[in-house]
Amino acid sequence: MNPIVLGVALWLLLGLEVGLRDLLAIGAWSIGPSLVIPLVVFVALAAPARAALWFALFAGLARDLVTVVSLDGGGATVIVGPGVIGTMLGAQLVLSARSLVMKRNPVTLAILSVGAAGVSDIVRVAALTVRNAYDPIVWSAGERLGAALLSAVYTGVAGLALALVLLPLAPLFGSAMSAELHGRGSGGRRG
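Now predict its structure.
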């Protein structure tokens, strides 16, 4: 795994996610895709489990740091934690499923992106709902959960598009990831 290439890819996709958020948003709920989650799924499909979880931690932290939550009395804040835990659990979902899927198929990355985004967003909504009980923020759990689950589906569409870019670029991310994605991974199993 090449940490420099992964860092640049994370920086680029996070910048695109934040910069294109308003352009890609659908409806009043601001349903929008995550471009970082498909990258986390891509890494979790091919990298060693420990490295994939560390990458998910950093990706979740980056997502938390660019997500602003409005306070009930006015103002805004950044809450670190829900995105970190959610992104790591989403990566764990992919790690659990990766022996069962065809890793080099773009549809696999898209479907697992829906699952990982769904898990990540459910954890985020649950954590912020609990936090709202003792630290009032502008929050409606039902509305946010609905928007989060629709955003997870939208993330799957973005994941399909990103798969068409990421899979051919697998050799740039490191030889182990490239070998795993092209059926020459450890254990002699092709997937």
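The beta strands are 68-70, 76-78.
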